[in-house]
Structure formats: C-alpha cells, structure tokens
Amino acid sequence: MQYQAILRILGLLLMLSSITMLPPSVVSLWYQDGAAAPFFLGFSLSLIAGCLIWLPVRSYQRELRVRDGFVVVIMFWVVLGLSGSLPLMLSETPDMSFTDAVFESVSGLTTTGATVIIGLDALPKSILYYRQQLQWLGGMGIIVLAVAVLPMLGVGGMQLYRAETPGPMKDDKLTPRIAETAKALWYIYLGLTVACAVAYWLAGMSLFDAIGHSFSTVAIGGFSTHDMSIGYFQSTQIEIVATIFMILAGINFALHFVAWRSLRLSHYFTDPEVRTYLIFLLLFSSIVVAFLYREDFFATLDSTLVHGIFQTVSIATTTGFGTANYPSWPIFITFLLLMASFIGGCAGSAGGGMKVIRILLLMMQGAREIKRLVHPNALFIVKVGGKVLPNRVIEAVWGFFSLYIACFCIISLLLVFNGLDFVTALSAVAACMNNLGPGLGEVGANYNTIDATSKWLLCFAMLLGRLEIFTLLVLLTPIFWRG
Questions:
Q1: Which of 88, 171, 217, 348 lies 20 to 30 Å from 38, alpha-carbon distance?
Q2: How confident is the model at residue 148 (pLDDT cuts 50, 70, 90)?
C-alpha cells in the first residue's frame, strides 16, 4: 500500500473540496442572512487540514494501484462527509449536534435526501443553498470531478474512476483519456442542470428555488428548500418539469454523451437498459394511478395522473421528492414504491438502488436457469444489446445482489435491536441503502426523532449504497491488506 501517495491525493482532494464552501458564503452575503461565518470557518479548517496532509508528501509521485484507489475513494468520502458537516455544525441556525450535522452532510453527498432538519422554510438562504449544492456535487461524484482536475497536478485517475463509477461494467471509457471522460460527463451533467433550472423558473419557481431544485433533481437527491418539498408549490407545471428531468437524470450519463455527440436519439431506444427502465416506470406508474383512481383519492383524472406519475418517478428513480399529501397515501402504494426504489436508476446515472442493468441481468439469468431445467444439456447464453456477456459479469451481479440483501438484513436487525419498530427500521435501511431518503413509519417525514446510534448505522448504509457495496466492503476483508 502506497500510503504516501494516498495521503498526497487525499490532501489535494480536501483542499479542492474546501472551495465548495465559498459559494454559500457569497449567497449569505448576497441575502445578508448572517450565516457567512460558518462557511468561511469551514473553508479555512478544510483548507488547512488539506495542506497539513499534503505538504509532508507533496513530492511523492507514484502511479496509483487498484488497492490504493479504493482506499482513496473510501477515505475521501468519509473525510468529505466530516468536513461537509462543519458549516452545519458551526451554524447557529439550524442548531445541530455533531451526529446530526454528519448525517445531513453524508445524506447530501450520497444524494440520499434523508434529513434531520425541521423548519426548512425558516433557515438562512445560504444553508438551504449549501444542502442543495452538496447533492449536486455528490450526484456525479466529486471524485470524478477530481479525476478531471488531478491529471493537471500529476496524479493519475483511472483507479479512482473504476472504484467510483456506478454499474457492473466499469472498464468502458467514452474517450481515450480518463480526464476527458470525466469532463465530458460533467459537461452533460452541467447542461442538464442549467436546462432544469430554466424550466423550473419558467414554470413559476423563484430563481433561488429553481437553481436549488435543479441541483437536487439532476443529482436525483431529493433535498428541497421547503418542508413540503415539491408539494409546497402546488403547481402541475412544476411537477411535470420535475418528472421529465428525474427520468432524464436516471438514464446513464454515458448514453447522454453518446447521443449528444452523434446528435441521434435512437441510442436511447436501442439501449436495453433504458428500455427496461422506462417499462418499469410505466408499469409502476400505471399501478399507482389505477389504485389512486379507484380509491377516488383526487378529484379529477388529470390530478390523479400528474400526482401518481410524479410520485412514482420520484421514488422509483430514488430522487425522493414528495407532494404535500404523499404520506397520507394508502400503505399499498407507499410500500410498492419503496420496493421500486430497490431497482433505482440506470448504471452510470446518479440514481441509487441496485440499478436497472443488474435487475435485467438477474431476470435474464433466472430465465436461463429455467430453460436449463427443461433442457439440461443445452447451452444458453445471456445477451445484452446483441453482445454476449461473460459469466464473470453474471457472477459479479449475483455477488452484488447477495451482499446487498445481506447488508440490508444485518443493518435492519441492528436498528430493530437498537429500539426502532419493524416498519421504521426496514424502510429506513431501504431508503438509505437505495439513496432514496424518505422512508415509512417514524422516518416518513424526517429522521430527526431516531437516536444517534441509528443515524450512524444509516450513514454507513448510505455509503454502502453510494459506493455500491463492493468498494466499501472490500476494505473490510483481510485479503485486501495482505502483501
């Protein structure tokens, strides 16, 4: 293990991340909300800590190995979660404990959207902006942003990209150089964010709300500047805009890049994962709308369609936005949508869950096993997009699925042991591991009432989901540290 190289990169990344505390300072000065000091102090502490880590090893330049890349990613997410909590902890409004501040920070950076804050409408504008910014940076992965910058500083980034990028097939590159790949993804990400902000503004949001909600929409995060989330605006147009951009943000950003570069939309319709993703959304939306219509939950069919489709897309893509009356919906719908969040978005998107491609491969593998029972001596292959997948990919998907379920069960048991009721524990773990946010029971609105131990367990669940299990668990194996 090249500890000096790891510390050098960690110091650089920490210094870079400290810069993200300056925009909220500007927002605070612009709105004169009196909350600039915590951001300036947080910036100073993060910058100094980064310098202290980097200076002793600044001249040590070695190529990162795969194991080093995993350590950097994990250490940085932990350190970033801690440093990101500084402005929240130092601020007088809201008055947050260390645990609550870290929970809010990790939730934002992992685009989970679970919050412990009550009274968002009364918070300083700078704090509200900072929460949205945390999700925006975490959406594509601040490591990918660093990968685009670090090569200029003499640090290779391929290992970081492989450890951070979502999805079962991580070796494909859009462009020959990894820095160019990261930049291309960020250009698409930024373009979608700007388009979303403009659409929200034209639909009736204030400029501040439009920018903030575009951050959390494209990041599939779910943080809002209001306690009632999207329901605060009581606007069909805003819900339609949110639905469209949540669907777009749930698609593989590499596919967005390919479609943009070739100026052809056909790539979306020929991609098997996107087709499956849209079929799942259509299926779940149809069930929810039909059930709401049967129960006469809304006065008109139009309202039923808009609210039903919006909430389905929000939960199924693991965004986590809500309407004012969503918690009062029938338990069948809330439970169905919670189950849908296990599927999540496409690989290569900011969405959580197990990813559509993995679910598709599991279904295809299940169908293959059924065929083998009927024809034991026949040879069946699994194809995606006309390409034969090697058994190694199928094995990795099965390994991921088994570990995902095992972690879900273990953390749920620990929460129940810690005193949470069964529904709250299971839904909280599902919401955090799937990077969804809102759960059921005690955590339906926020996570403020649960104890500190449960919050730390859920922080671990968020990181598990954001880093897709293997990246985090590999550090806990003895074989990783040998040699």
A1: 217
A2: very low
Closest C-alpha among 107, 87, 90, 79 to residue 15: 79
State which H helix or E strand residue 227 sits in.
Answer: none
Residue-wise DSSP of 401-449: HHHHHHHHHHHHHHHHHTT--HHHHHHHHHHHHTT----SGGGSS-STT
Structure confidence at residue 179 as a pLDDT band (50, 70, 90)? low
Is 90 exceeded by the pLDDT of residue 309? yes
Asked if the model's pLDDT at residue 160 lies above 50, the reply is no
Q: Which residue has the tokens 């949205």?
A: 132
Q: Which long-range contacts (CB under 8 A, 24 or more apart) does 424-429 make?
A: 424/450, 427/338, 428/454, 428/458, 429/458, 429/461
- Contact partners, residue 459, CB within 8 Å, separation at least 6: 81, 102, 103, 106, 107
* CA 38 – CA 30 distance, rounded (Å): 15
CB 186 within 8 Å of CB 148: yes
**Dihedral sign, Cα of residue 140, residue 143, residue 144, residue 146:** positive
What mean pLDDT comes out for the span 395-423?
93
Partnered with residue 387 across adjacent β-strands are 384
Cα distance between residue 332 and residue 290, in whole Å: 12
Distance between CA 482 and CA 460 in Å, rounded?
A: 24
The answer to whether 323 and 229 are in contact (CB under 8 A) is yes
Strand partners, 383: 388
Closest-CA residue to 155 (of 42, 299, 58, 50): 58
Q: For residue range 319-364, what is the model confidence (pLDDT) as tens digits?
A: 999 886 777 788 899 889 999 999 999 887 888 899 998 898 899 8
pLDDT tens digits, 89-99: 999 889 999 99
Determine phi and psi for 384, rounding to 5 degrees: -130, 120
Instruction: Compute the residue count for the chain.
Output: 483
In one letter, which amino acid is 231? G
pTM of the model: 0.91
CB 99, CB 453: distance < 8 Å: no
- CA–CA separation, 73 and 188 (whole Å): 23
Tokens of 35: 């909350």
Helices (H), 229-300: 236-249, 253-262, 266-270, 272-294
pLDDT, tens digit (0-9, with 9 covering 90-100), for 229-260:
999 999 999 999 999 999 999 998 888 888 88
296 exposure class (CB count in 10 Å sphere: 0-12, 13-18, 19+):
exposed
